[in-house]
Amino acid sequence: MDSYLLYFAVALGLFAFAAGFTLFAVYAERKVSALMQDRLGPMEVGKYGTLQTIADILKLLHKELITPAAADKWLFVAAPVIIFVAVYVGFAALPWGPGLIPTRLDLGLYYLLGIISIETLGILMAGWGSNNKYSILGAMRSAAQIISYEIPAGFALISAVMIAQSLDMQTIAYQQGILSSEPTKFLGFWDVSTIGGLLSWNIFRAPHLIIAFGIYFIAGLAESNRAPFDIPEAESELVAGFHTEYTGLRFAFVFLAEYSMMFLVSMVAVVVFLGGWNTPLPNIGPVKLADWTTNWAWGILWTLSKALLLIFVQMWIRWTLPRFRVDQLMNLCWKVLTPLAFACMVISGLWRVFVM
After folding, report:
1. What is the CA 316 to chain-centroid distance, rounded?
2. Do the domain assignments include residue 284?
3. So what's the pLDDT on residue 2?
4. Residue 305: HSE in the Cβ half-sphere, 13 Å Cα cutoff
5. Membrane-spanning regions, if any (predicted)?
6. Mean pLDDT score of the chain
């Protein structure tokens, strides 16, 4: 009975974090966009507008749940829940620090890639179930986009997995710091397992993984339907895309899933490529910076710092680059990212055999 209560508490804590992060991220995105456009952003509700997002979500929760008369009611109602749950359960396999992981799985990364794919099913259900031409167009665009960009994203992650020789997210994180039980070689030659810091991260252990990281990050933008890959929700063409007909709590679930997906994509990038919860500070002679900044508390700090930095870059890109056309988006995926990601995978195999 106690174990079930613990599972429930962890699940509730992860949900509370996802909701709290979404409130913070929406406010941060408004301020980031305002900064880039020489505006102030929200300023009226609370000091510097800090309560604006809370006011918006309270208003959203009080709105009526409207189901279009011509909609497929079962699909329409179930879709937002499936979209959110597919992203939310991915949080279970994320390591937050040394020994801090809700569920440690030998196939943790494989589980994440598989469970996130279910979001596509929810998006298709939302578009088809709405019986709205804009919704179905947005859903079809989103499905084509997500399925296509999963291929270069998968190849990029496999490139790192071939170096790490593990699909366990916690093991991948351990290998990139001073707590590693095996030698960690910078550029395949210099053992830095006792030095730690930046040099032990995967993007420095095998430099071609910098390219793989870039490919994964771009593909993550597309999988999250973030600009410049937001054609499934293109307001100028499709009103709001697959969630055009949603109101109230149902729309809140779709909105929550989008920002949770931003965090999940960033966390996977952090764990697989950027050292996970490991410190960027090295041990230099008698000054043991890596030793002093490696424990569960520091681990949470480093993990969140790296993830939030990537999320800031996602927001920065949204308010900087114009939206791609559909043909440009597909050309980038199939003609640029997929061949590059496949090349990274081949290089990882050669690196593992001849260098490491």
Report:
1. 15
2. yes
3. 65
4. 13
5. 6-27, 74-96, 108-128, 149-167, 251-276, 296-317, 329-351
6. 89
Asked whether residue 56 falls in the same domain as residue 85, the answer is no
Is residue 67 domain-resident?
no
Based on the fold, state whether residues 48 and 176 are members of the same structural domain.
no
Full residue range of the structural domain in which residue 249 is found: 72-354
State the total domains in the chain.
Answer: 2
Strand partners, 191: 185
Q: Given 11, 44, 62, which residue is the final one in a domain?
A: 62
CA 118/CA 108 separation, integer angstroms:
16
Per cent of the chain over pLDDT 90 is 44
pTM for this structure? 0.93
The residue among 18, 92, 55, 25 whose CA lies nearest residue 226 is 25
Q: Model confidence over 321-330: pLDDT tens digits?
A: 888 888 898 9
Q: CA–CA distance from 132 to each of 49, 125, 143 (Å)?
A: 35, 12, 16
Residue 63 has pLDDT above 60, yes or no: yes
Among 165-179, 260-274, 313-327, name the most confident range.
260-274
Instruction: At 272, list the tokens.
Output: 């697989």
| 21 and 114 both lie in a single domain | no
Q: Which amino acid is at 36?
A: M
Does 265 fall in a domain?
A: yes
